Amino acid sequence: MERTLVLVKPDGVRRQLVGEILSRFERRGFRIVGLKLVQPTREIAERHYAVHQGKAFYESLVSFITSGPVVAIALEGPQAIRLVRQMMGALKPEEAAPGTIRGDFTNDIQTNLVHGSDAPETAAAELAIWFGADELLA
Ligand code: GDP
Question: Could you report the per-residue pLDDT of 60-72, keeping only the tens digit for each?
Fold first, then answer.
């Protein structure tokens, strides 16, 4: 069993795609072990995107992720990290396959609807950024 963090980014909330996105993960069989609507602070955004600090798109990324509420979702299931990433689709719009969330609903590299942890270490770190221990099911 693995746990992973998914964020429905501010564009997904604005476009009213929260239900669509959550539903895909539920139908795939993942168990929701944490769920909340959060207005990210600059501090939480900087912690979440620390790995991108210094990159050309960093400021734009932080201002985008803090531009409105996000839905933070903790999912549990076998191979959750890898399977969720597959269901999200690739970062580059031309590589995001139809049938994936990005491939079905966006054509932009930044406003790409979802974040998903990319490895066990980042999943643990990101879950701790977005959820308190008392906000996750056992
Ligand atoms: P992900 O794991 O597929 O989300 O991709 P990354 O971890 O590499 O990038 C994090 C986020 O930064 C992406 O989801 C995009 O929102 C944004 N991003 C990444 N690369 C670029 C870029 O070249 N330009 C812009 N504007 N945003 C980017």
Answer: 999 999 999 999 9
